[in-house]
Design goal:
Helix content: 25-40%
Strand order of the largest sheet: 15-14-9-10-13-18-22-19
Distance between the termini: 43 Å
CATH class of the largest domain: Alpha Beta
CATH architecture of the largest domain: 2-Layer Sandwich
Strand content: 25-35%
Number of strands: 22
Structural class: alpha+beta
Mean pLDDT: 94
Length: 412
């Protein structure tokens, strides 16, 4: 089987490595740092299966275009991709499906006064989200009413995220540990990827600083049992798939569900329509069996092989450019990757990497590398990841030192 992975980040690099165990794989656009890369656009690639990694091409309808040309595609069409492309639409779907989620209001640019009035009816923490895609950086969570009010006004004026922010979702702030769950869908049903993961979104240690696309992740969450994941599927994923079917949406791809485990029970924070980044980097390498065949079955609408995951733990630490997430400074030579890869249990995925005219690896994005450790326990995996991190350097490199350091114990 020949598989074309669409994308260029660390998630897609993890896809390439995992799928290459059983298939011939190419990636577009990839990067000069990834040997399987091609400069052909997806519609010019000859492949048996297309796997679309990022959310933007899914929302823009790439899966629809490829399917119209007779290709098998793992990734939803633009209709299903609205689950991530519009948070207001996602909230409408899950409300219709009876999925427990935070109380919310949706407001457009002409409704600033109504939005502020709704905000005034809420108690902190206040959660303000852009409706459209914002690269994981369109959410403000704050206890400060004035900051929340200013964020609403700035977003609705189009000053923060352009058109993506001209509608905002104001949500009830929830408290508790977060959990990420992934399910493979074939248009009729969803099948659990039987592991959990926890992302670290804030830039700084102790979950301080601005939101990012993700600064690190670990999997599995030790306190979460398989039965709890099955319960979350029943509470949120299966009802959502049925509601999509009610709306004549043939959803073939992954559903990434983010939950807050509150004192009142689990509540859905959001759905994403692609594997998480960096969650994919700590889940995909642990998958057993022929992953390419599983994705092909889903693309064909006949998923019969149940995904399984080994018992190892993985931790990934994101190494980012100076200035990330606002204005990353790129073009610096990266040193030490080969030395890091020589460590037993370590792996490195290229998130924002290119090569210069001398063939040296250089930074080419905000999040640059995902440095992973894999071992029989979370503690050992974390030690391997940070041992590898210490061998890598470039000018202005930044990263968190507390990924996986204090595993949540509040989850019941």
């Amino acid at each position: 089987m020949k598989v074309c992975v669409v994308g260029s980040g660390g998630r897609e690099h993890a896809f390439v490595e995992t799928l290459s165990r059983d298939a011939e794989v190419i990636i577009t656009p990839g990067s000069l740092a990834v040997p399987e890369s091609t400069d052909k656009p997806p519609i010019e690639v000859d492949a048996d299966l297309f796997v679309i990694g990022p959310e933007i091409p899914l929302v823009d309808g790439l899966a629809d275009e490829l399917r119209s040309r007779g290709h098998k595609v793992f990734g939803p069409g633009s209709d299903g991709a609205l689950l991530e492309g519009s948070k207001a639409w996602m909230k409408d779907v899950v409300h219709a499906a009876g999925v427990p989620t935070a109380r919310y209001g949706s407001f457009e640019s002409s409704q600033v006064d109504r939005a502020i009035e709704f905000l005034s009816s809420m108690s902190p923490p206040f959660v303000i989200k852009t409706d459209g895609l914002a690269g994981g950086k369109g959410v403000l969570v704050t206890d400060n009413y004035s900051d929340a009010k200013a964020d609403i006004e700035t977003k609705l004026a189009g000053l923060s995220f352009g058109d993506a922010g001209r509608r905002v979702i104001i949500e009830e702030g929830l408290r508790g540990p977060e959990l990420s769950l992934f399910a493979i869908c074939d248009g009729q049903k969803a099948v659990l990827v039987p592991t959990s993961a926890q992302d670290h979104k804030r830039l700084g240690n102790g979950d301080l600083g601005p939101n990012t696309g993700g600064m690190g992740c670990y999997s599995p969450i030790p306190e979460i049992q398989r039965s709890q994941l099955d319960d979350l599927m029943e509470i949120a994923v299966h009802p959502t798939v049925e509601e999509l079917k009610n709306r004549n949406i043939d959803y073939r791809g992954v559903l990434f569900a983010g939950f807050m485990m509150t004192e009142d029970g689990p509540k859905l924070l959001e759905f994403n329509v692609r594997f998480g980044d960096p969650e994919a980097q700590v889940i995909l390498p642990r998958l057993r069996g022929n992953f390419a065949e599983i994705l092909m079955e889903a693309a064909e609408g006949n998923l019969s092989t149940v995904p399984t995951v080994d018992d190892d733990a993985m931790v990934t630490v994101v190494l980012a450019s100076e200035g990330y997430p606002s204005k990353p400074i790129t073009g610096h030579v990266i040193l030490g990757v080969d030395a890091a890869l020589a460590i037993d249990g370590a792996s490195v995925y290229f998130a924002g990497v290119d090569k210069n005219e001398n063939g040296e690896l250089i930074t080419n994005g905000g999040r640059v590398l995902n440095v992973c450790g894999r071992a029989s326990s979370l503690e050992k995996a974390r030690a391997i990841a940070y041992q590898a991190v210490e061998l890598i350097s470039w000018e202005g490199m930044q990263y968190r030192t507390d990924i996986g350091a204090s595993v949540q114990t509040e989850i019941d």
